[in-house]
Design a protein that fits this description.
This protein is an alpha+beta fold and 219 residues long. The protein folds into two domains: 12-87, PGBD-like superfamily/PGBD (Muramoyl-pentapeptide Carboxypeptidase, domain 1, Orthogonal Bundle), CATH 1.10.101; 100-218, Beta Barrel (L,D-transpeptidase catalytic domain-like). Helices cover 25% and strands 28% of the residues. Strands 6-11-3-4-5-10-9-8-7 form a nine-stranded mixed β-sheet. The protein is elongated. 36% of the residues are buried. The model has no long low-confidence stretch (mean pLDDT 88).
Length: 219
């Protein structure tokens, strides 16, 4: 009897390490189906890989963690076309290429244009999160700084407000979690600090950053 040809392997569309608008749409659809609770960031990270693997296992597909054409078609059939709000829910805009000053050592790489913070170690992006900056009258300073003080439960006496997970880098300016940013998004602004709205993300970041780590604030 003639040998039946093997079915062609499903082509991989995206895998860990990839980035771009396709990955952002994948993440938005994974959020809709309750497999991903972060992002979308546009970067195929470990959380995305885990979400895809879980989705595949639930549907009886090989748990590769990479998004192939079969996985993608199944996900598309179970979700709706994401709109701008779905795609940029957390990040304002997709992160641009990291500033060259961010490519060596341990760096909080903060991009004012895309309103994102990347935590980078030796040129590799460990995590990315949405940030908000100072209002017009109190801008966030740009340049290269160092984390000189960390304060987990910081309270600002100057502004009479809570600044959890504060990592100070320039005068009174710090990267910290903002309840206001979480509630109001980009409708508000800070007094110069770099606000983070994702508490789980900054809690993890706070645990990794050390005094003396570099901070680059750029456009």
């Amino acid at each position: 009897a003639p040998v039946k040809p093997a079915a062609p392997a499903a082509g991989v569309l995206w895998r860990r390490g990839d980035s771009g608008p396709g990955v952002r749409e994948l993440q938005a659809r994974l959020r809709q189906t309750q497999w991903l609770f972060d992002g979308p960031t546009g970067t195929y990270d470990d959380l995305t890989e885990r979400a895809v693997s879980g989705f595949q296992g639930k549907r009886g597909l090989p748990r590769t963690g990479a998004t192939d054409t079969v996985t993608w078609r199944r996900l598309v059939s179970m979700s709706r076309e994401p709109g701008t709000w779905d795609l940029y829910l957390m990040g304002g805009q997709p992160p641009g290429a990291p500033d060259p000053r961010c490519l060596t050592g341990r760096v909080l790489c903060i991009d004012k244009t895309s309103r994102t913070l990347r935590w980078m170690v030796d040129g590799r992006t460990v995590s990315t999160m949405a940030v908000r900056f100072g209002a017009t009258g109190t801008p966030t300073r740009e340049g290269v700084f160092r984390v000189y003080w960390k304060s987990r439960h910081h309270w600002s006496t100057l502004y009479d407000s809570s600044m959890p997970y504060a990592m100070f880098f320039s005068g009174g300016q710090a990267v910290h979690y903002s309840y206001d940013f979480a509630a109001r998004g980009y409708a508000g602004g800070s007094h110069g600090c770099v606000n983070v709205r994702d508490e789980a993300a900054i809690a993890a970041l706070y645990g990794q950053v050390r005094d003396g780590d570099k901070v680059v604030v750029h456009r």
